Amino acid sequence: MKEQNQLYNGGDYLDYRALKDEHPYYISEDWITGSIRYDNEQYDDVSLLYNINTDNIITERSPSAIMIKLVRDKVQSFSIDGHQFVLIKAHEDLSTGFYDQLCSGRVELYAKRIKDFQETISGIEVQRNFIEKNKYYLHKDGQYYPIKSKKSILTVLGDRKRELNQFIHENHLRIRQNREGVFIKLTEYYNGN
Q1: Are strands 41-51 and 108-122 parallel, antiparallel or unpaired?
Q2: pTM of structure
Q3: Beta-sheet pairing, 97-103 with 83-88
Q4: pLDDT exceeding 70 applies to what percent of the chain?
Q5: Could you tell me whether strands 41-51 and 32-38 are parallel, antiparallel, or unpaired per DSSP bridges?
Q6: Strand order in 143-147's β-sheet?
Q7: Which of 36, 66, 113, 188 is the most buried (most CB within 10 A)?
Q8: Are 87 and 97 in contact (CB under 8 A)?
Q9: Shortest CA distance to 12 belongs to which of 63, 54, 50, 69?
């Protein structure tokens, strides 16, 4: 506990109170054990929540179970559920925030995980939803490029467009069925050859 005191220096976090089963968190509204690089120190086996609506990392101070919102600029990276998130500072093509690093190498692939809050009234009942969406970016030669389709990823990786098209055809890759999976396979193929 003494070793982790540096980790507990954020502000109080007011948890979202759900009406039904909606929540603003990545993967689960339950604590996930992960690791975090915070203020240049590594902490492992830490209870974490990632609020992807507000882009905040929350930890729990035991034994009092106080929820603490960590200072975003002190979080260099964190891992939960097998996903490595890194803080990327504002760039002309993207805003400051945490991005899921899906591939690394000559070209890096990132996903920005987002949940937009929607509240509607149906009769006398309030309905709340978080609509989840992902935005994808390639980092190549110091630039970040948004990618949405086969055409956009092949434009960024244009120096090997013919090989990548052949790889898509031979492996029956369908972006409409699994956009993230295809983006990962294309980036890994590009980096591996």
Answers
A1: unpaired
A2: 0.86
A3: antiparallel
A4: 87
A5: antiparallel
A6: 11-12, 66-69, 56-61, 41-51, 32-38, 75-80, 83-88, 97-103, 108-122, 125-140, 143-147
A7: 36
A8: yes
A9: 69
